[in-house]
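To whoever is on call:

I kicked off a structure prediction for a single chain this morning and the downstream step that reads the tokens threw a length-mismatch warning. I double-checked the sequence; it's 285 residues and nothing unusual in it as far as I can see. Pasting both halves so you can look.
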Amino acid sequence: MTKSTSNVSSTSGYNGIEVSPAEANVLHEIEMQVGIPIPLKKTVTNGTFGYAITGKRKNLHVGKLGLYNKKLEWLPDRFGNLTWLTSAFMEENLLTSIPKSIGGCEHLMVLGLAFNQLTELPASLGKLARLRRLDLSRNQFSLFPACITRLLNLKDLWFVRNKIEYLPSSIGALTRLQYLWLMHNKLIELPPEIEWLASLDRLEVSGNMLRTLPESLARLHSLHFLHIANNPLTSLPAFLGDLPALHLIVASKDQVQGTPPSILRRFQFNISIEPDWMLSLSIQG
């Protein structure tokens, strides 16, 4: 649900800070829902309630916004008026939707929406060409939002503890993606197109329903870390031994049974500091 409070008057600033009227109105609408003014902060990060400004003197803009754990049920329809926003942290709220206008936040690089109640995203989110990090963990997604595959500069994608079963073939468009966090979903398979994630350094798919891994995974030449524990895999495929950069595999003990000798020759076993049903296989020097 998104709402716009029509009786918020135009203003030349927000609580004495001379941001544009369009930006000030967005902050006022959020303030009316939260019940207290949004404080000005020097820095805004995850877990913060406040905003930080960017620009100089008479050309000030809202640069960062933190709305952590404020029981927000909606964002203003005109949220996209925050055109100079580079980071937005809105974790631990009650959001069920994101306004279409978010596509107007053209400078946005970091977007945190974990621990909400989202089931879908507006197509306009795919216009965020500068977005580098997106966290959608702990929501209610059963389908992977197609708009994400249009975020061609995305480097870090968090999608932990949702309910997705499949990734779209278009995931291969994210050639700059370095970190993909998909733990504790309901993934049945990984698409062959995952091979196009040429920059992928870390793949986290533990706690899913994967019975096999696609052979195309062997073409992820930048992959350093693979976490596949707690899946119904019965062994580790031989092609993992061909990954030139792979340094660490975290797997369940039962996945090691029947693992090809080529894998065992390349990796040495070390008991992980994780629960005792896991083993880490680290590359020999």
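Update from on-call: the warning came from a stale cache, not from the record. Cleared it. Sanity check on the structure: The chain is about 10% helix and 20% strand.
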